[in-house]
TrEMBL record:
The lineage of its organism: Bacteria, Bacillati, Actinomycetota, Actinomycetes, Kitasatosporales. This is Thiamine-binding protein domain-containing protein. Pfam families: Thiamine_BP (PF01910). Residues 3-92 form the Thiamine-binding protein domain. One of its GO terms (cellular component) is cytosol. Coiled coil: none annotated. Belongs to the UPF0045 family. InterPro entries: MTH1187/YkoF-like, Thiamine_BP, UPF0045_domain.
Length: 98
């Protein structure tokens, strides 16, 4: 499964990068395949391991902010691996890219 999620503190002002970095650090230290862009962090793995990482990422932000916003989107497709790469490669192929 692939989960794309965004976790942000609320009530701490406009500069939230330091808080978001705490969440992304949890994801990167998990060892699961992941990517971070300007809006979301995507992570790939089995249901329980992915959801555990999301929960810990939220907790990392919550430890420093009393209120947290979580947006989550999941692609649940048993038996598929390396979706983070293969989905992008498919689109690039249709675009005439690599």
């Amino acid at each position: 499964m692939i989960v794309a999620f965004s976790v942000s503190p609320l009530g701490v002002g406009e500069d939230v990068g330091e808080y978001v970095a705490d969440a992304v650090r949890v994801v990167r230290e998990s060892g699961l395949p992941n990517r971070t862009d300007a809006m979301f962090t995507s992570i790939e793995g089995e249901w329980d391991e992915v959801m555990d990482v999301v929960k810990r990422a939220v907790a990392a932000v919550e430890a420093r902010a009393g209120r947290v916003s979580l947006v989550l989107k999941a692609d649940i497709r048993p038996g598929v691996t390396d979706g983070l790469t293969s989905k992008v490669e498919t689109v690039e192929r249709y675009l005439g890219g690599s």
